[in-house]
């Protein structure tokens, strides 16, 4: 390296830190050597460094989004055995991450089925896939979120707590049916559903389909209003099969499972 270059590069690390370009900071010494040796045009080294920075920035963003999403680990689409749930179409579900803009329109996904059929797994798997597609996701047990929103309401901060959840394109509410039936709880849930209506998507898993939702929302008018908003733009997947856990055990014992097909899609 010439003396002039040494002087010029001395401040590079701190300048690159200041500009938040960690990938350029890491790669430039090696790339500069290659460029010198192979007589690259200046524009080529600049473009190569920027390409690396942009690619790694996307990776860092995805890693951040994955961390904040609090998804259960290992529950991905490629680990989901669709042959065990013949009531839902693998092609249809796997097309969702590629998207037709459903997430941008605030379309909801409702997953119904008895315990153990893979609702949480499939919900989490869609969460993973949407993060890979560049979206932000939060996975939470419905009861936990309801408690947080109730606490926020007690501090007169419910509106801002709901607004903060807006940054998540997809909010996964696992086990809606487990929410206890007090009026206070369900009204925060209703406010969340209303606030996200036609703007931000919810993915809800529930053991009970709508017929039993009067047990979740004790006020029948509120139940109707909540369901109305949820289903207006919704993909409803009914996983009316037997427990995957039980079937796995039965398969080991040599029995063959018998699923019942059913899938509904609104708009
Ligand atoms: P649910 O939420 O409907 O009660 P889970 O998603 O918790 O059921 O599934 C129970 C267990 O069985 C989990 O460990 C899950 O990963 C696994 N499982 C369920 N269905 C499938 C499936 N179709 N393919 C692979 N694993 C499954
Ligand atoms: Mg579950």
Write the layout of secondary structure elements.
Blueprint (H helix, E strand, L loop, with lengths): L2 H8 L1 H7 L3 H16 L4 H28 L20 H6 L12 E5 L6 H14 L4 E5 H13 L3 H7 L5 E5 L8 H14 L4 E6 L13 H13 L1 E5 L5 H9 L11 E2 L2
Parallel strand pairs: 1-4, 1-5, 2-3, 3-4
Antiparallel strand pairs: 5-6
Helix pairs in contact: 3-4, 4-6, 7-8, 7-9, 9-10
The structure holds adenosine-5'-diphosphate (ADP) and magnesium ion (MG).
pLDDT averaged over residues: 88
Low-pLDDT sequence parts: 257-263
Q: Which sheet architecture does the biggest sheet show?
A: 6 strands, mixed
Strand order of the largest sheet: 2-3-4-1-5-6
Helix content, binned percent: 40-55%
Supply the number of helical segments: 11
Total number of strands: 6
Topology as a string of helices (H) and strands (E) = HHHHHEHEHHEHEHEHE
Q: What is the overall silhouette?
A: globular
Strand content: 5-15%
Ligand inventory reads: adenosine-5'-diphosphate, magnesium ion
- In whole angstroms, the N-to-C terminal distance is 64 Å
SS-derived structural category: alpha/beta
As a whole number of angstroms, the C-alpha radius of gyration is 24 Å
Task: Summarize this entry quickly.
With 267 residues, this protein is of the alpha/beta class. Helices cover 51% and strands 10% of the residues. The protein has a 6-stranded mixed β-sheet.
Description:
Helix 4 packs antiparallel against helix 6, helix 7 (142-154) packs across helix 8 (158-164) and helix 7 (142-154) crosses helix 9. The chain is 51% helix and 10% strand. It contains eleven helices and six strands. Mean pLDDT is 88; it is low at 257-263. Bound molecules: adenosine-5'-diphosphate and magnesium ion. Adenosine-5'-diphosphate binds at residues 75, 80-81, 84-85, 113, 115-121, 205, 244-245. Magnesium ion binds next to helix 6.
């Amino acid at each position: 390296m010439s003396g002039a270059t040494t002087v010029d590069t001395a401040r590079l690390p701190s300048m690159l830190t200041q500009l938040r370009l960690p990938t350029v900071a890491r790669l430039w010494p090696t790339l500069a050597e290659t460029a010198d040796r192979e007589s690259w045009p200046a524009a080529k080294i600049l473009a190569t460094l920027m390409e690396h920075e942009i690619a790694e920035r996307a990776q860092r963003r995805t890693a951040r989004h994955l961390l904040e999403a609090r998804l259960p680990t290992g529950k991905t689409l490629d680990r989901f055995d669709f042959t065990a749930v013949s009531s839902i179409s693998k092609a249809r579900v796997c097309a969702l991450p590629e998207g037709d803009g459903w997430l941008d329109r605030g379309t909801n996904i409702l997953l119904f089925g008895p315990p153990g059929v893979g609702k949480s797994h499939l919900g989490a798997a869609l969460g993973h896939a949407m993060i890979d597609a560049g979206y932000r996701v939060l996975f939470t047990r419905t009861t936990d979120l309801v408690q947080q929103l109730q606490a926020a309401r007690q501090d007169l901060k419910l509106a801002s707590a709901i607004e903060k959840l807006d940054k998540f394109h997809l909010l996964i509410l696992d086990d809606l049916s487990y929410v206890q039936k007090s009026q206070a709880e369900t009204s925060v849930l209703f406010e969340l559903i209303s606030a996200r209506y036609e703007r931000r998507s919810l993915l809800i898993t529930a053991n009970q389909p709508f017929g039993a939702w009067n047990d979740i929302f004790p006020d029948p008018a509120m139940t109707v209003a909540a369901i109305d908003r949820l289903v207006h733009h919704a993909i409803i997947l009914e996983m009316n099969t037997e427990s995957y856990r039980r079937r796995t055990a039965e398969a080991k014992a040599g029995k063959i499972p018998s699923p019942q097909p059913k899938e509904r899609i609104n708009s």
